[in-house]
UniProtKB/TrEMBL annotation:
Transmembrane segments: 6-23, 32-51, 80-96
Keywords, sorted A to Z: Carotenoid biosynthesis, Isomerase, Membrane, Transmembrane, Transmembrane helix
Protein's UniProt name: Lycopene cyclase domain-containing protein
Organism encoding this protein: Prauserella oleivorans
Localization in the cell: Membrane
Membrane topology field: Multi-pass membrane protein
Associated pathway: Carotenoid biosynthesis
Superkingdom of origin organism: Bacteria
Residue stretches making up the Lycopene cyclase domain: 8-91
Length: 107
């Protein structure tokens, strides 16, 4: 399970802690953030479900590297964890970049 599950499990608290303890952008309090996550998952579910369906998979996961939990449509739960972490980390980076840009005086 170390191959994909452990990094996926660790990525979520890592991203959350980076926001709460270091960056403090307030991203988690923004309605737009949660709407964005909803949209991401709304598209991820049918696409990832089609790619990972056990009846005719396009993407194969080694059983030794995942937990085996799949929901919905045979999607490995690790995909949702990494999806959350990657989208959140990207949005945090953009938010910090925008914050830094507005703080820097223009010549």
């Amino acid at each position: 399970m170390i191959g994909y599950t452990v990094p996926a499990l660790l990525s979520v608290p890592a991203v959350v802690l980076v926001e709460l303890l270091w960056l403090r952008t307030g991203l988690f309090r923004r309605r737009a953030y949660w709407i964005t996550l909803g949209l991401v998952f709304a598209f991820q579910i049918p696409v990832d479900g089609w790619l990972t369906k056990l009846s005719a998979p396009i993407v194969l996961y080694s059983p030794a590297h995942i937990s085996g939990l799949r929901f919905p449509f045979d999607i490995p739960v690790e995909d949702f964890l990494f999806g959350f972490s990657l989208v959140t980390a990207t949005l945090l980076g953009w938010t910090c970049q925008d914050r830094d840009r507005t703080r820097t005086p223009k010549p």
